[in-house]
Design brief:
Length: 386
């Protein structure tokens, strides 16, 4: 296949160390492996240019985010969108007629541009952005940051109808796909789960006797989840070792967790260290206060980990909602339920039978299956648009 494709990324997708860029990076890798010639466009702020991306892309272009213009804060257009506008990007996209994938709402300012009226334009959705920002605002501790998030949520909700100009919406889960179908019925919406590194379950290994929570700890959603688990669950399991690992934990979180003798914090682990922690944990705990998007950490632990205990919000809209109790996946919503499930897992062995059941359970979530679904959607859209 020699299919050219533009992908407009909201950030530099390397290293693939947090949710959104994981989807972008492994999409590049998967599509390249089946012959796509990808023209990647990255908005850059805080992350360096990555020569590693050139292995999977026909071309890679970088555009600086304009974040220092104070006037942006007084515009009704979301700050996350205004700072991702570039004349150079427009020029580069107009050089040909290849399909364009706009990664998340932040990159979508060109969707209603008349110059792109007849182009195939795909909106790749990761979250219902205004809901996501509202949830972040509610859990944010810093006053000015909280205010910014609430204002940005309002602006994102107002901006969202621009997706009516997309040829198709690529949703990460069933719940969000229903939202887009109801709100924008004229736009084709299909579920294309997040791309990820796994095409098979990691081979069965020996698990160590610790509980793991992992995530991007700089995000309020995640550090609130850690604090809830620490206060209500881990503190009541002093006999079990707990590891909390993730990017950029704020100092107040590190200090707070020092109060719990059984909790060890591993800040900014390398990809190798994180993979080892997930694979060797006896129990991976997942908890969130909001049912937005598809939690990539759920896929990580199901493909690479042992027992998994998650709350309903974490599983909402995923293909695993009906798989509870299978393959070592258990649900817990209250503190008592988490404690009871953790204790039960420590009395069990994650054995070959459970591993085989896990493999069957997540067969349709393999990255090769997701890639095939994307290719089929692209072919269908191209066919229907001549």
């Amino acid at each position: 296949m020699q299919q050219h494709l533009h992908i407009v990324a909201f950030d530099v997708p390397y290293p693939p160390d947090y949710g959104g860029v994981i989807d972008v990076f492994y999409k590049l890798k998967a599509l390249h492996s089946v012959g796509f010639r990808i023209h990647l466009h990255c908005f850059q702020y805080g992350r360096k240019a990555a020569p590693e991306l050139e292995e999977f892309c026909e071309s890679v272009q970088y555009y600086p985010r304009s974040v220092k213009n104070i006037r942006y804060q007084f515009s009704l257009t979301p700050f996350t969108v205004l700072t991702r506008q570039s004349k150079d990007l427009e020029t580069n996209l107009l050089k040909d007629n290849y399909p364009i994938v706009f990664e998340v709402l932040h990159t979508c300012y060109l969707l209603n541009d008349k110059r792109f009226r007849h182009r195939l334009k795909f909106y790749r959705h990761s979250n219902i952005e205004h809901d996501y920002y509202s949830h972040l605002a509610r859990s944010e501790k810093r006053l000015f940051r909280k205010l910014y998030l609430y204002i940005e949520a309002f602006k994102l909700k107002r901006f969202e109808p621009i997706v009516e100009h997309a040829t198709a919406i690529l949703s990460v889960n069933e719940n969000d796909a229903r939202y887009f179908c109801q709100r924008y019925p004229k736009v084709r919406t299909e579920v294309i789960p997040s791309f990820h590194p796994y095409d098979k379950v990691v081979p069965l290994t020996t698990h160590d006797n610790y509980i793991l929570y992992h995530g991007n700890l700089s995000i309020s959603e995640n550090y609130e989840a850690v604090l809830w688990l620490a206060r209500n669950v881990f503190s009541r399991l002093p006999e079990y070792k707990v590891i909390v690992a993730g990017k950029k934990p704020p100092s107040f979180l590190v200090e707070r967790l020092k109060e719990f003798r059984n909790i060890e914090v591993i800040p900014d682990p390398t990809a190798t260290v994180m993979d080892h922690l997930i694979t060797h944990a006896l129990v991976n705990t997942l908890y969130t206060h909001q049912a937005t998007g598809l939690k990539l950490k759920l896929l990580n632990v199901l493909f690479a980990g042992g027992f998994v205990i998650a709350n309903e919000y974490m599983l909402s809209g995923s293909p695993f909602e009906g798989q509870l109790g299978k393959g070592g996946l258990y649900i817990a919503n209250t503190a008592d339920e988490f404690i009871n499930q953790i204790k039960a897992c420590f009395r069990l062995t994650y054995d070959p039978a459970l591993h085989t059941e896990r493999c069957k359970m997540i067969e349709k979530s393999r990255v090769s299956v997701i890639t095939e679904a994307f290719i089929q959607l692209l072919a269908d859209v191209q066919s229907s648009h001549g």
